[in-house]
Amino acid sequence: MIHNRPTNGDRTYDVVVIGGGPSGLMAAISAQSSQARTLLIEKGSKLGRKLAISGGGRCNVTNAKPLDELIRNIPGNGRFLHSALAQFNNYDIIRFFENLGIALKEEDRGRVFPRSDKASTVVSALVDYVRNLGVDIRLNSPVNNLVAPNQEIQGIALTSGEVITARAVIVATGGANVPATGSTGDAYPWARALGHRIVPPYPTEVPLTSDDAIILQHRLQGLSWHNATVQLTAGTKPLATESGDLLFSHFGLTGPVALRLSHYVSTALRNNPATIFTAFIDLGGTDSQEDLAKRFHEARLSQARRQIQTLLHQTWPQRLTEVLLDIAQISGATPVSQLSNAQIQTLARLIKKFPLSISGTLPLNKATVTGGGVSVKDIHPRTMASKRCQGLYFAGEVIDVHAHTGGYNITVAFSTGHAAGLHAALFARQVSGTDA
Questions:
Q1: What region holds the RsdA/BaiN/AoA(So)-like Rossmann fold-like domain (predicted)?
Q2: DSSP secondary structure string, 180-230?
């Protein structure tokens, strides 16, 4: 049963949205478009700060892949999003921005960007639309807590002491990974105080660290590999295989492949901090291990006098060649004709499954995305409404849902923001008696 709330005359908002990031902006648009008097409140001095730096400053607004593939690229509770995406999916996002007059383009792997290649195009269009709809906006207004006696939302309290009354509140404060943009995990204690379970935040879409001697000695630092395939294992158990660009750094591995694998590292470490990982990197391209071995066997005849380091350097970078030979315990000056069958097999195996120990990930403040947050067990998947507190809704990265980079996380933000805004508005209208 829905109970009427105490109001504060005309100053009571139907919906208050906390957070001016992508999910908060979309929630405000959705709520105001559903005839709800809406306030968007942001603790910083600007709206859309995290959006402005997304996609390398170009703003990857969504991904154009089919829905089932979209869900597969949301490894953190992706199935929770089926209902939200049924209401507002990636194709709806594309139409939404095109209707705002933003020309879009699709790039590799389904990534969708503004043709301007400027995130400011997207941020300006969203903020202008919010203003034109008549959403009230308050900046530099940090929230202290939610006002919800008896588990029923009545409004929010600012750190200034001001209380703003509202029939519904949408928490869209983001994760805890980018303090400079305001993502500092503010909402976790608010939600916990109202009985919500909080999955402790952890880094995802973050570079991998390694204590392997090759990394510690900086032997491959700065070496990049295009379209590498990497298999991650925990002990002898395969966890995941990803393909894409890879970069060896002074601390481990970075690049799209490393970021995609970080979810599995972080998840495994949460369950067992002593987990030992190995990344097996395929450096052989389309050649199989058998193909490589055959090439080396043929080279024993056709390039008999050539040194093995020279032969390898025809295909692989010099530093990588040196590392391969060191691991295989083969002198670089060895004539190809003198390679044994066992040495050939060792080299072929190393090239196809180059092993690198992985110790973990960089910390949360270096992550692109926050894992953890308000448990999806405490949120209705269709409406984004709290199961613990009437009139409370969640959207975006504050929820324990996370996706790979490539337009997937922002799709989650827009989809959950749309659902939260729509259903918070419907709820507020029921409470106020303006909706039968």
A1: 14-421
A2: GGTBS-THHHHHHHTT--EEEEEEES-PEE---HHHHTTSSTT-EEEEEEE
User: Quick one: fold of 207-361?
Assistant: Helicase, Ruva Protein; domain 3 (1.10.8)
Which of the two residues, 368 and 41, has the higher pLDDT score? 41
User: Would you say how long the chain is, in residues?
Assistant: 436
Q: Where in the chain is the domain with CATH 1.10.8.260?
A: 207-361
Dihedral of alpha carbons 270, 378, 87, 131, sign:
negative
Q: How far apart are the first and last CA of the chain?
A: 14
Q: CB-based contacts of 2: which residues, under 8 Å, 6+ apart?
A: 390, 427, 430, 431
Secondary-structure class of domain 13-202+366-432 per CATH: alpha beta
Q: What's the pLDDT score for residue 183?
A: 63
Question: Can you give the pLDDT at residue 1?
Answer: 27
Q: Is the pLDDT of residue 388 over 90?
A: yes
User: Which is nearest to 6 in space by CA: 176, 114, 184, 165?
Assistant: 165
DSSP state of 170: E
**In the block, residue with structure tokens 């400011």:** 120
* Cβ–Cβ under 8 Å, residues 393 and 386: yes
DSSP, collapsed to helix, strand or coil, labels residue 238 as: strand
Which residues, at least 6 apart from 312, have a Cβ–Cβ distance to it below 8 Å?
Answer: 321, 324, 325, 347
Mean pLDDT within 392-421:
97
Rounded CA separation 300/101 (Å): 63
Average pLDDT over residues 391-395: 99
Distances from the Cα of 385 to the Cαs of 22, 85, 195, 394, 423, in angstroms?
18, 15, 14, 7, 8
Distance CA 232, CA 183 (A): 30
Q: Can you tell me the mean pLDDT for 366-377?
A: 94
Q: What is the mean pLDDT of the segment spanning 246-254?
A: 98
In the chain, CATH 3.50.50.60 sits at 13-202+366-432
Contact 75, 402 (CB under 8 A): yes
Q: Is residue 5 over pLDDT 90?
A: no
Specify the pLDDT at position 334: 96
Quick one: pLDDT band at residue 126, thresholds 50, 70, 90?
very high
- Phi first, then psi, for residue 343 (nearest 5°) are -65, -40
